[in-house]
Amino acid sequence: MTKKPSKKSSASRRPPKPPKKTGIGLLPGGEGGRFSEHLPTKEGAIGSYVHVGARVGVLVELSCDTDFLARTEDFLRLAKELCLQVAATRPRWITRGEVPTDVLDAKRKEFQHEATKKGKPIAEVAKIAETKLENYLSEVCLLEQPYIRESSGKVKVKDLLTEAVAKMGEKVAVRRFVRLEVGDE
To answer: Domain with 68 in it: what CATH number?
Structure first.
């Protein structure tokens, strides 16, 4: 006795859809065995970097207005450059506005105390503390840091982003980043 074919809807007879391609995969990222990958998101891309020896790794989410821009080589190269910047300089925040006020107040007091301890005149203590606070912010805020590939130290990461916006014709922003180092807490 032969079985009759069941009368299921045409949708159930279609083969299953293949999984979406994510673009995940390691691509040679340059000298010294470094690797990089870029995962497209709705608003940009996530760049990654793992340093030689796999002891330091970085993820940076770079956003833009269109998926088209997120797939361009220039955009992905910018994401990689920002990953390298984060790996090399260890920023804690993206912008000055993200630094908690209690951290700013504590650093300001620390710098004032240092200046007072060195015997600086009271009139200069506040100015010295503010200058040191500016220097501190340029070290811990990603967009305020000098760009590592520019030896003069005059080009900041925010200038790199401004240049990218002018070249790409679309808003580009760092949304978030994470830097991991083996043994670091």
So the answer is: 3.30.479.20
Distance CA 27, CA 83 (A): 15
d(CA 64, CA 8): 45
20-53 per-position pLDDT tens digit: 433 333 333 333 333 445 555 568 999 999 998 9
Residues paired with 146 in a beta bridge: 156
Q: Which domain holds residue 159?
A: 28-94+149-185
Residues 6+ positions from 41 with CB-CB distance below 8 Å: 61, 63, 70
**Cβ proximity of 75 and 64 under 8 Å:** yes
Beta carbons of 57 and 180 less than 8 angstroms apart? yes
Distances from the Cα of 110 to the Cα of 2, 102, 107, angstroms:
88, 12, 5
CA-angle at 23, arms to 21 and 28, nearest 5°: 150
Residue 35 maps to a domain: yes
